[in-house]
Design goal:
alpha+beta, six-stranded mixed sheet, four-stranded antiparallel sheet, 14% helix, globular, binds magnesium ion
Length: 202
């Protein structure tokens, strides 16, 4: 399975949705990035600035290629939350030196995900609130209506380049106010009122 992650997909609430690129920008993480069942995340020793990015995730339920936006919604039935952990110091180093930035995003356990819910549990998946608590304090919140590229547009673009297979995951971008984690931190994430993630940093 593949994990696609969209970058730069949120504006501040009520700000103008300006597209800086004609297509969504995305990258991949390997399957070894998955961290399941609320297992603890072990802070890697190669970074001194490990940051959370809470993101809505959809799981592909049907194989597809060159999917048109209007049919994209038939390719996923499940929605959940995940964290796109990022070694910000490595990312900055790679960007500054014009290097590929995989290592800052695709390392082991960099993609914790929770259980998924049927998407038809919600009236409109492009209007969902989600939030992250760190040690009981809200540190990040977003609404999927603030996405610059909708989930269906993302699927249209990605499927031009990659065949989608059952089980592939789409991380759809993070809203503002990402932040750093430390050993001992407790992270909890909610999609509307449903708790989707609950784990510790070790
Ligand atoms: Mg991200």
């Amino acid at each position: 399975m593949k994990i696609f992650c969209v970058a730069m997909n949120y504006v501040e609430p009520n700000a103008e949705k300006k597209r800086l690129t004609s297509e969504p920008v995305f990258f991949l993480k390997p399957d070894t990035a998955l961290l399941l069942k609320n297992r603890p995340f072990f802070l890697p020793d190669f970074s001194n600035n490990l940051q959370y990015e809470l993101e809505v995730v959809v799981r592909i339920g049907k194989i597809g290629k060159c999917i048109q936006q209007k049919y994209a919604n038939t390719y996923y039935q499940e929605i959940g939350l995940g964290i796109d952990f990022t070694a910000k110091d490595l990312l900055e180093h790679c960007r500054k030196n014009g290097l590929p930035w995989e290592i800052s995003k695709g390392f082991d356990s960099s993609a914790p995900i929770g259980d998924f819910l049927p998407k038809n549990k919600f009236q409109n998946i492009q209007n969902l609130n989600f939030r992250l608590l760190k040690n009981g304090q809200e540190v990040q919140k977003g609404n999927t209506s603030d996405m610059i590229f909708s989930i269906d547009e993302i699927i249209e673009t990605v499927s031009k380049y990659y065949t989608l297979k059952i089980g592939d995951l789409f991380f759809t971008g993070t809203p503002l106010s990402v932040g750093q984690v430390q050993i001992g931190d407790h992270l909890e994430a909610f999609l509307e009122d449903e708790k989707m993630l609950d784990f510790f940093v070790r």
